[in-house]
Amino acid sequence: MSKINAAITGINAWVPEYILTNKELETLVETTDEWIMSRTGVKERHILKGEGKGTSVIGTKAVEGLLKKTNTSPDEVDLVICATVTPDMFFPATSTIICENVGIKNAFSFDLNAACSGFIYALETGRKFVESGQYKKVIVIGADKMSSITDYTDRTTCILFGDAGGAVLLEPTTEDLGIIDSKLYSDGIGVKHLFQKAGGSKHPPTHETIDAREHYIYQEGQAVFKFAVTKMADVAVEIMEKNNLKSKDIAYLVPHQANMRIIEATARRMGLEKEKVMINIERYGNTTNGTIPMCLHEWAPKLKKGDNLILAAFGGGFTWGSIYLKWAIDGDSK
Description:
30% of the residues lie in helices and 25% in strands. The protein is of the alpha/beta class. It has 2 domains: 5-176, Peroxisomal Thiolase, Chain A, domain 1 (3-Layer(aba) Sandwich); 180-326, Thiolase/Chalcone synthase (Peroxisomal Thiolase, Chain A, domain 1), CATH 3.40.47.10. The strands form 4 sheets. It has a 5-stranded mixed beta sheet, with helices on both faces. The protein has a 4-stranded mixed beta sheet with strand order 8-13-12-11, with helices on both faces. The chain has a two-stranded antiparallel ribbon with strand order 2-3. Strand 12 and strand 13 (319-326) form a beta hairpin. The longest helix is centred in the last third of the chain and has 22 residues, at 221-242. The model has no long low-confidence stretch (mean pLDDT 96).
């Protein structure tokens, strides 16, 4: 019996219309466009505006487009996984809300939280369900409304984040395509360096936690950068070496868009020129779980069946990992 692989057979992404530029941020906090660009590479980011609009809005738009592009009926979908750190609410899961919005009724769904590594964690999870042979159509979503937990009085973090999301369709194939291998890691040492203090069961919301601005992202930038720049590069090289891949064999690195310097360091370790690295951080910032599917969506028209891609991410916790996949479609269609 031929081995079943899980292949991406469709990709779609969506960003909100409103654009928050560095120039506008200069009116909110003490910063400059030059300072932001030199340290992060971010020029602008999209923000979801409107009362009562959560991450499910982004995920719904991404999945609606995915179903249309792949000519997939909602009734055909077996499983939906949504990677997010900004769920609409603690429960029900945002994936369930998205399923209701797009008419998916025959699937089970759940959310997954691994910070900025969540999308590749979810992709690997979806892969296993497809490889089991029991599931034929699995949708993996990466979406976040980071503006909802960003403190726009904190000049060190408000420059980084934006809102966006994307979704992929995973289907079985017996060809030598799809997700080939992965390496995923976590280390709880990172908890104290990057977190949201209040809002969970340890520190439930109170007037005091709100007044202390503890429901926003807290980040010790230097500690996070030092760990990220090493681990994301290490794991990308590890997956290459494990699969006997040289830099010439790689069509593209698909890195999490956290910081331009981290992306460049990872590419250098892999021996890749800039032309082989998917970079859109200047236009979207760090959209957490949205970064990798956003890149895949934008570059899909350039990709060819059989192209070797290395996905790499690093997130709070700490979490990090890499996936080696062979692109299964020509361009952006089935």
